[in-house]
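[job 0412] stage=complex_fold ligand=coenzyme A status=START
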Amino acid sequence: MNKPGTNDFQIVAYGREHVKQVFAIEAELNPEPWSEQLFTDELTVPETSRHWLVALGPEGVVGYAGSMLIGTEAHLMNIGVKPTQQRRGIAKSLMLTMLADIARKGLVDMTLEVRPDNTAAISMYQKFGFAPNGVRKAYYPDGQDAMIMWLHDLNSSAYGDRLKEMAS
Ligand SMILES: CC(C)(COP(=O)(O)OP(=O)(O)OC[C@H]1O[C@@H](n2cnc3c(N)ncnc32)[C@H](O)[C@@H]1OP(=O)(O)O)[C@@H](O)C(=O)NCCC(=O)NCCS
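[job 0412] stage=complex_fold status=DONE, emitting structure tokens
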């Protein structure tokens, strides 16, 4: 979804060869990171219930995103971009591809949890049309509550047009 030739990264399907680099980025981003085993195990889950993507730059993985698919709902489980590569549109490209892919699969709604003080992520989710709707008490290992956000009708033609406009 990123424009070839204008960005030095591309969005591709997550595979076994990416696990170590994804885990290394996750460990840089999160004080309580997902384990490498968890990232490996995600590859063994039936592909009908998961959608994982990575952003690849010249030196390897620079970002990743993964969603759980349940019926017509997607749940964004994780998204991260290598700190030195942030603010270059990598997460935006991951989200554009993720949303277009899951809309094609017939999913309708998407949800996620985010720390209420994660202004960078919240700003991005709002640009994609996610809106706050609920709180998960003590969701994070340090006891912080999570803000729940939802996006609806992601398979509508209006939302498809919105994604195309964001990608242009
Ligand atoms: C959130 C995160 C994935 C964004 O990745 P990124 O590649 O830097 O984001 P992009 O460059 O694609 O920016 C997309 C939008 O996100 C928002 N954004 C990203 N970084 C931001 C920042 N530092 N401050 C404010 N808004 C920011 C902006 O709305 C931006 O749109 P804009 O470029 O038009 O302003 C990245 O900061 C990250 O990995 N954070 C740590 C992990 C995390 O918090 N994951 C989300 C868990 S819910």
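The first strand starts at residue 10 and ends at 13.
[job 0412] exit 0
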